[in-house]
């Protein structure tokens, strides 16, 4: 659309044996904006993120980050691009033989020249932000699923990334915690102005955070619209999705009222 | 017929592919080791502890028994020719040239090689390696380089320990138990062991060290590309077994090759 698009997926297809999961995905992610990818389980949302990260190669099609094709770029170039990324994996992918503290400290240790004291302060700050004080010495196996998510978020945000990818950041969190996480996103984004790509099932709450909402269905991005346009879209697939995911709210409101 | 050709072709491609990616893997790691200032000495020390220090007990134990049995066998054979005096040089030469490097390498494969492979394999299947890459931390540098350096440093040292303990074991059995002449034991050893023998043993142990860590690390690193299916706990256990088997076999083959080149 315009020149500000930071990430572009052009006709990306991905096939696993006989199953074609992505069937020509076109998606633009705009600088400084929050794009939320929604869609039913198993549609390939996590796969889209893995393609943008360069962890998977498309069967055909291109993924451009800052105008550079992530699959043909040199290793050094790829590393430079990834240096701006902050990633939360769907299953957190914490380093399971390191403590929570060390997990969050790792990017600081390996990528910056920060002193031990700076590291300790920064990590403590991130852990407080994610409401994890006192869990620093625990190992990933000793904390709950929702805590793992928050450790993953702390690790993703510790280096002040320019682009963040959050795969289901609030799945498995209680409502108060997930509201708190959304507030953290909002705060850090206004502070850092990062571009974010969020995969979420938390419709419609996630709409409050979104600048754009993209629906993945049947291997293609049906449309990428602002939340208001999304909810009033004429596209039958989007309308069905909106009704299915938000319908129950209207219904329960009606029953209560 | 076509099916057979197909399978043969597929297998060939798979193994050529595997050899290729293992070669590239080695090149990346070596490149990262040469780029000196970028990895941390504390990681290397930790790995030397895991690969080297923790193997010392096993090495001492096996070394002692190897030397003892060498002396036992050697004494019985040599006494048939009336040359028990040579027992010292027989024990020392067999250990230094051959048994020390090979057996120490096999023990390290079993103890540390399998652990390296399983550790890296688990990191791969639980997306920890992907996570590292996305943080712009090169796993070749962060995980592999310290392990390679540690193995290259530890295996020759462990081999030396194996040899020393083995010779001592041989001395106990040959001299104290079987009653060979103590003076002859040491003089024959000093006389017959040459620098070439020691350097052969050293070259072997360095090559074996590299071979072990290379095969075990690369196998774990590429567990998701295994032909037998690299999924979950079973995938890791299978790849660990195959890494141990492959490095043990390769050690014996490489041992023959090095011996034939240096002899
Ligand atoms: N490595 C793989 N090999 C084979 N199939 C895969 C692989 N990775 C993903 N798939 C398939 O791709 C599809 C999409 O997977 P993906 O994890 O992207 O779904 P998702 O949209 O993130 O779902 P969820 O909301 O449940 O996380 C699934 O049908 C899955 O079976
Ligand atoms: Mg997913």
The proportion of residues in beta strands of chain B is under 5%
Uncertain runs of chain B with pLDDT below 50, 5 residues or more? none
Give the helix level of chain A as a range of percent.
25-40%
Mean pLDDT value of chain A: 89
Describe the protein in words:
The complex is a heterodimer of chains A (257) and B (263). With 257 residues, chain A is an alpha/beta fold. Chain A is built from eight helices and ten strands. The longest helix of chain A has 21 residues. Chain B has one domain. In chain B, helix 3 packs parallel to helix 6, helix 4 runs parallel beside helix 8 and helix 6 crosses helix 8. The complex binds adenosine-5'-triphosphate and magnesium ion. The site of adenosine-5'-triphosphate has 11 residues of chain A, from helix 1.
Give me some keywords for this one.
heterodimer, A: 257 residues, alpha/beta, Rossmann fold, 2 domains, 6-stranded mixed beta sheet, 4-stranded antiparallel beta sheet, 10 strands, 39% helix, B: 263 residues, mainly alpha, 9 helices, 0% strand, binds adenosine-5'-triphosphate, binds magnesium ion
Task: Produce a short descriptive summary.
The complex is a heterodimer of chains A (257) and B (263). Chain A has 257 residues and is of the alpha/beta class.
Write the layout of secondary structure elements.
The complex is a heterodimer of chains A (257) and B (263).
Chain A: E1 5-16, E2 19-30, E3 34-38, H1 45-53, E4 60-65, E5 68-69, H2 75-82, E6 85-88, H3 100-111, H4 116-129, H5 145-157, E7 163-167, H6 175-192, E8 195-199, E9 212-217, E10 220-225, H7 227-231, H8 236-256
Parallel strand pairs in A: 3-8, 3-9, 6-7, 7-8
Antiparallel strand pairs in A: 1-2, 1-4, 4-5, 9-10
Helix pairs in contact in A: 3-4, 3-5, 4-5
Chain B: H1 2-34, H2 41-51, H3 56-80, H4 87-125, H5 128-134, H6 139-177, H7 182-192, H8 195-221, H9 232-262
The structure holds adenosine-5'-triphosphate and magnesium ion.
Magnesium ion (MG) binds at residues 45-46, 90, 167 of chain A.
């Amino acid at each position: 659309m315009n020149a500000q698009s930071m990430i572009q997926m052009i006709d990306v297809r991905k096939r696993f044996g006989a199953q074609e999961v992505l069937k020509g995905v076109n998606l633009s992610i705009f600088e400084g904006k929050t794009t939320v990818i929604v869609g039913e389980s198993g549609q390939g949302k996590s796969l889209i993120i893995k393609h943008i990260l360069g962890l998977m190669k498309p069967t055909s099609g291109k993924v451009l980050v800052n105008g550079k094709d992530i699959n043909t770029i040199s290793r050094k170039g790829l590393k430079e691009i990834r240096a701006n990324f902050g990633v939360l994996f769907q299953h957190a992918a914490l380093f399971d033989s390191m403590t929570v503290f060390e997990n969050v400290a790792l990017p600081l240790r390996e990528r910056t020249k920060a002193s031990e004291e700076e590291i300790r302060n920064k990590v403590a700050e991130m852990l407080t932000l994610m409401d994890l004080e006192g869990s620093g010495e625990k190992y990933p196996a000793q904390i709950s699923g929702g805590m793992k998510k928050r450790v993953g978020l702390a690790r993703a945000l510790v280096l002040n990334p320019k682009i963040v990818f959050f795969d289901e950041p609030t799945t498995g969190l209680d409502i108060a915690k997930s509201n708190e996480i959304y507030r953290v996103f909002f705060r850090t984004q206004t502070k850092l102005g990062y571009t974010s790509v969020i995969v979420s099932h938390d419709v419609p709450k996630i709409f409050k955070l979104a600048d754009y909402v993209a629906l993945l269905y049947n291997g293609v991005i049906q449309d990428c619209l602002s939340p208001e346009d999304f909810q009033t879209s004429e596209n039958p697939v989007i309308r069905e999705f909106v009704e299915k995911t938000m319908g129950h709210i209207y219904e329960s409101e009606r029953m209560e009222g | 017929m076509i099916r057979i050709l197909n399978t043969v072709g597929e297998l060939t491609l798979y193994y050529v592919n595997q050899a290729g990616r293992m070669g590239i893997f080695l090149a990346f790691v070596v490149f990262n080791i040469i780029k000196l200032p970028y990895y941390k000495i504390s990681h290397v020390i930790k790995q030397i502890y895991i690969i080297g220090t923790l193997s010392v007990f096993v090495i001492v134990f096996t070394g002692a028994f190897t030397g003892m049995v060498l002396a036992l066998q050697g004494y019985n054979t040599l006494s048939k020719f009336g040359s028990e005096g040579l027992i010292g040089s027989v024990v020392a030469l067999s250990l230094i040239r051959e048994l020390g490097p090979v057996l120490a390498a096999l023990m390290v494969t079993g103890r540390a090689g399998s652990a390296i492979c399983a550790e890296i394999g688990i990191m791969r299947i639980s997306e920890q390696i992907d996570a590292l890459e996305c943080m712009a931390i090169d796993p070749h540098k962060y995980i592999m380089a310290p392990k390679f350096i540690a193995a290259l440093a530890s295996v020759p040292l462990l081999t030396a320990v194996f040899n020393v303990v083995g010779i001592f074991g041989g001395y106990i059995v040959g001299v104290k138990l079987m009653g060979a002449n103590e003076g002859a034991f040491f003089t024959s050893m000093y006389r017959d062991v040459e620098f070439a023998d020691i350097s052969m043993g050293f070259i072997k142990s360095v090559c074996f060290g590299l071979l072990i860590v290379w095969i075990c690390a690369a196998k774990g690193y590429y567990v998701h590309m295994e032909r037998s299916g690299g999924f979950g706990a079973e995938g890791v256990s299978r790849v660990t077994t195959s890494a141990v088997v492959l490095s043990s076999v390769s050690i014996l083959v490489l041992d023959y090759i090095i011996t034939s080149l240096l002899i």
